[in-house]
Amino acid sequence: MGPIKVAIAGLGNCASSLVQGIYYYKGVTGKEERVTGLMHPSFGEYLPRDIEFVGAFEVNAGKIGKDISEAIFVHPNVVIKFAEVPKLGVEVLPAPILDGVADHMKGSFDVYDAKEMKPVDVAEELRKAGAEILINFLPVGSAEASRYYAQAALDAGCGFINCIPEFIVSDSGWQEKFRKAGLPMAGDDIKSQVGATILHRVIAQLLSDRGVEIDETYQLNIGGNTDFENMLAEHRLKSKRISKTEAVTSILDYPVPTRIGPSDYVPFLDDTKICYIHAQGKKWGGMPISVALKLSVEDSPNSAGVVADVIRATKIALDRGVSGPLLSISAYSFKHPPEQIEDSIAKRYVEEFIQGERER
To answer: What is the pTM of this model?
Structure first.
């Protein structure tokens, strides 16, 4: 199979983890039964090494003009370097700023001076690069900018993967646009490989399946990367809280007092994310039960393996001429998909999609 030509909007820690991972797993042949860190060594006929990065768009002056291989390690990126990335020959281009940068983040993101530098036309650059898929890795709260990139993907004839909690793939209007254009889309709001949301869903499902009535639950998250710094602005978090909360409460068929979402920014944690999950309820005889769990992970690499699968699913959809939202991979890989499906069922649907037994 040929390469999967991918462009990235927002070359932050998550993008760095994805790019590094593709080279970390370059030796995977697809014949292995198991590879540490990969859910699918081979996704259909596609391997991780088939993913080729052909474009990147940024607002950080220190990243613009650099090769992707260099820019993924530029401040404020703090993700651990776990792979050597060769020079790719792809220059990072200046992106439209729009609402992609909160006022309190202009210094942290080292935003370029609009008087000295002009943004490129993203759709035009995608066409020049021959990109097949555009990934949205913008900061949480980038409503206008995310929609700009979705439209750019449409204009350039690219599939679109929305990794942030802006409701695009789950929006009927955008779904229709991508259907008419004959292009696939996957999203919204990427799940981590083993993260707070998937663990919280498992706990809620287990308690429910075992006859426990949940009285209350919360999920508190802290971290030290720019994602958490950006989310200090509560007004940028509306869709994020909805996305994370619905991902958990969709398991239950009754309302539960819930608080889920980012809680604080702790700079010295760097890319470490710490999560506390609590659930309390009643079991046999009305007797109380309480669950408390702490999760600690390197935040950005935790989503990269999931995105690698989504890229390959989107490429398969392009190969097959499937358009509109990809329901199986979206339900399995995102917090706010077009259709919430139980994880075990969504996993089966993904395998059926790979085999061609399920259209989307």
So the answer is: 0.94
